[in-house]
């Protein structure tokens, strides 16, 4: 073991799960709004999925993927429009103004987040139950990550909002890596800042150099707000789900180091 400890976010740092979440959202949208999807062609579905990759940085919670799917449909098919915002709306404008658009479309579509959260969760669970290997194949690890994790001499922890068992399954099936369950802090283990406090307090971690790699700038900003966590080196992965604007902002924050994928892989070794 080296004398470095790495706490790693999962989605957007290790694993590109955007294909999976977009496909789950498309499945769920067809259940929620069957009339709207009656005449949607496979070409249009492909276009929607492609745009979802561009829009992924705005997604904070999974159900927002459903809203994006429907909004993209409204952009492309004018006669299906039931919101006031779709006319002339560009992908760039959604990236820019998602927090303003979201409440407007939810009101105009008469949707509640709790219903969409339940539906999205059910659709994903059903996919996993019926076709675990298909579900796993819808995600991929970023290039070089599997080897980096396999040969890492640093102490690795996963800190994610995903359920631990899903992160574990993806690590084993996609990367051939087994990370002991006590090193995976998943959904239900508390906010990331609390997990980092827990990790740094462990007797066996005293004297280790601490590193936290994330793709969401807001999460890193939350760490910076906690003086107790001043000892952590913070990294924003350029390859993850963040925008050019967020990366520019990160450059102006002295605590945050911007990291390229290849540098990340070599750091772990
Ligand atoms: Mg992430």
Report on the architecture of this protein.
It contains 12 helices and 8 strands. Helix 1 packs across helix 2 and helix 1 (18-32) packs across helix 5 (113-130). The chain has helices at residues 18-32, 42-55, 64-76, 91-108, 113-130, 132-137, 145-150, 164-175, 192-201, 217-224, 244-251, 261-268, and strands at residues 4-8, 15-16, 140-141, 155-159, 184-185, 209-214, 233-237, 256-259. It is globular and about 60 Å long. The model has no long low-confidence stretch (mean pLDDT 94). It is of the alpha/beta class. The protein is 51% helix and 12% strand. Bound molecules: magnesium ion (MG). The site of magnesium ion (MG) has 8 residues, from loops. Magnesium ion is lined by residues 9, 11-13, 215-216, 240-241.
């Amino acid at each position: 073991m080296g004398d470095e400890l790495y706490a790693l976010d999962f989605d957007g740092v290790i694993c590109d799960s955007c294909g999976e979440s977009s496909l789950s959202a498309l499945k769920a949208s067809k259940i929620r709004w069957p009339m709207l999807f009656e005449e949607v062609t496979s070409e249009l579905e492909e276009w929607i999925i492609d745009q979802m990759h561009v829009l992924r940085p705005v997604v904070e919670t999974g159900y927002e993927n459903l809203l994006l799917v429907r909004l993209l449909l409204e952009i492309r098919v004018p006669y299906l429009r039931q919101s006031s915002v779709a006319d002339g709306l560009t992908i760039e404008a959604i990236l820019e103004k998602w927090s303003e658009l979201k409440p407007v479309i939810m009101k105009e579509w008469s949707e509640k987040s709790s219903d969409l959260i339940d539906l999205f969760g059910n659709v994903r669970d059903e996919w996993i139950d019926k076709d675990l290997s298909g579900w796993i194949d819808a995600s991929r690890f970023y290039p070089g990550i599997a080897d980096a994790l396999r040969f890492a001499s640093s102490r690795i922890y996963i800190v994610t909002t995903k359920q631990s068992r899903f992160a574990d399954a993806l690590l084993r099936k996609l990367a051939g890596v087994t990370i002991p369950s006590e090193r995976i802090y998943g959904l239900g283990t508390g906010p990331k800042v609390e997990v980092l406090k827990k990790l740094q307090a462990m007797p066996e971690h005293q004297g280790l150099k601490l590193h936290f790699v994330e793709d969401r700038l807001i999460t890193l900003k939350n760490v910076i707000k906690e003086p107790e966590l001043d000892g952590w080196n913070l990294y924003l992965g350029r390859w993850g789900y963040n925008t050019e604007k967020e990366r520019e902002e990160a450059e102006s924050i002295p605590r945050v180091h911007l990291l390229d994928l290849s540098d990340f892989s070599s750091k772990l070794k």
